[in-house]
Specification:
Length: about 500
């Protein structure tokens, strides 16, 4: 019987990790080529080589124009790219490089091929973000078995080591660049998400930015110029700020040495000052916690446990704010840096046992076979429609936010013109009636309808959302009974041919 060939990957904003379930059914983190359990999600273009990890992160201080970090915040953004040597690299390309490094190192460590993966994403990720993540995995050489929301993965890792008891758990996931809050009911091996919310641009990077602004203002007060205007010195300052942030989780104060143009400032910052600087960001997370409680129709008293996930939950100000908000200390029993990857590995083992059971050892099947996971949609899904009797366009929501997934909902539309042989439908994600305030998922045109028909003929459109959060559409012409699987023209995404071509291109590059 072969060893498990499916891994779980936490593709993080600042750090990534890969894990696998061993022959006994226990998840374990796989070290990278540098013997580290976490790999910085940084990419350094060093002549013809692509360097991923700590060396790339360190290079940001000396050659910032050759280094890209925090790309996860741009996933699914068609207008963002990283320029280098007359080439433009998309967020999907950069993420694929990180994933290729993880894949190579894991295969080298285990001495076997690892062709399958479950990759985690923030719960708030929209359709475009999710498709971009799947594409990155495929370019890197994986067959992506599934996507799983990061808080859900963390809860699975937590549940794998807990005693058999029923709990309502709030997962507070504050990473390097993103924030998620998820409320989940755990009953044995049954994990059921009740509600979820999050913020795209909120995480440890923002805490670093706050310290950087604090240091810059003090330096400018002494020397009358901004040390961060030089890209190299700004990179060095970011490293100094991140170090200070970590120290303030253990000490009441620390010092930053800021150097620029031959000038030096020794700047002291206390934990109290740091907490004051980041309080608006922490307050934003608590606002999202409140809204998620409302969505789940729960109060604070219903939460049995607050589970901390993500490296930024080590910040003392975060823990104190949560303790005050909930009236009890949050649970930090799981490793906040590794729980997401460990949970993804468990999910990868479950998926592997379903699609290739002959390759999965009985102890693994015994551990993961009974796992039941029900997640929810992070955003509402709607179809562009008209207000009856007017030309006003609206986002007609058909799958509300926090609906259990997988799910599918049908809605009937009518042709509006004589002899209409096609109908165009635009799919949106968002909570607003005005389509302009929502994000378009894509368009499709149902063509080939019989000619010479009168207006008012019915078309049934079915929108489905998979457990991974990926959206698909089918349509049925009710008059002829013809079922059509439509080709959706997604606003963001790549064709199978494009993904294959990028994968071949990446194979020609040295990724270390």
């Amino acid at each position: 019987m072969a060893d498990l060939s499916a891994v779980g990957i936490d593709l993080g904003t600042t750090y990534s990790a890969v894990a696998v379930v061993d022959e006994h059914g226990s998840p374990t983190i796989l070290p990278n080529a540098e013997s580290e359990r976490l790999t910085p999600s940084a990419v350094f273009f060093d002549d013809e080589s692509i360097v991923v990890g700590q060396i790339a992160k360190d290079a940001a201080a000396t050659t910032p124009d050759h280094v890209v970090m925090f790309v996860k915040r741009q996933m699914g953004n068609p207008n963002w790219y990283f320029p280098h040597h007359q080439q433009r690299y998309s967020p999907t390309d950069i993420s694929a490089m990180v994933l290729r490094k993880l894949k190579q190192d894991a295969e080298s460590y285990l001495g076997r091929l690892l062709p399958y993966a479950v990759i985690t994403v923030p719960a708030y990720f929209e359709e475009a973000n999710r498709r971009a993540t799947i594409a990155a995995g495929e370019i890197a050489g994986f067959r992506v078995l599934d996507l799983i929301n990061e808080p859900t993965a963390a809860a699975i890792a937590f549940g794998a080591h807990r005693s058999e008891q029923n709990e309502t758990v709030l997962i507070y996931d504050l990473g390097g660049g993103t924030f998620d809050v998820t409320i989940m009911r755990i009953e044995g091996q049954d994990f059921r998400v009740l509600a979820s919310d999050g913020a795209h641009q909120l995480g440890g990077k923002d805490f670093d930015d706050a310290i950087m602004r604090f240091a810059v203002e003090h330096f400018k007060g002494e020397h009358n110029f901004d040390p961060a205007e030089d890209a190299t010195e700004a990179g060095d300052l970011r490293s100094t700020a991140e170090k200070a942030k970590r120290e303030l989780s253990k000490r009441l104060k620390t010092q930053l040495m800021v150097r620029s143009q031959g000038r030096t400032s020794r700047i002291e910052i206390s934990r109290e000052q740091f907490d004051s600087l980041i309080k608006p960001k922490i307050d934003t997370t608590l606002t999202l916690v409140r809204s998620t409680l409302r969505d789940a129709k729960l109060s604070i008293e219903h939460i049995d446990r607050v589970l901390l996930i993500g490296g930024s939950t080590r910040v003392i100000g975060v823990r104190m704010a949560l303790a005050q908000f909930f009236g009890k200390e949050p649970d930090s029993s799981v490793n906040p840096d590794e729980a997401v990857a460990l949970g993804a590995a468990i999910m990868a083992a479950k998926k592997a046992s379903e699609i290739m059971p002959e390759e999965v050892a009985p102890p693994i099947v015994e551990k993961v076979g009974g796992l039941q996971i029900t997640d929810v949609t992070s955003h509402s899904l709607g179809i562009e429609a008209f207000v009856p009797g007017t030309s006003q366009r609206i986002n007609s929501i058909i799958i509300p936010r926090n609906s259990p997934i997988p799910t599918e909902v049908s809605r009937e539309f009518v042709t509006t013109l004589p002899g209409q042989t096609a109908i165009k439908v635009t799919i949106f994600q968002g909570e607003f009636p005005d389509p302009a305030l929502c994000n378009p998922v894509g368009d499709f045109t149902l063509g080939g309808l019989p000619p010479n028909r009168q207006p008012g003929r019915k078309i049934r459109v079915t929108v489905s959302c998979a457990a991974s959060g990926v959206v698909n559409v089918t349509a049925l012409d009710l008059e002829t009974g013809t079922q059509t699987i439509t080709a959706v023209s997604y606003k963001v995404g790549q064709s199978a041919e494009q993904i294959s071509a990028r994968g071949r291109w990446l194979n020609t590059k040295s990724v270390v």
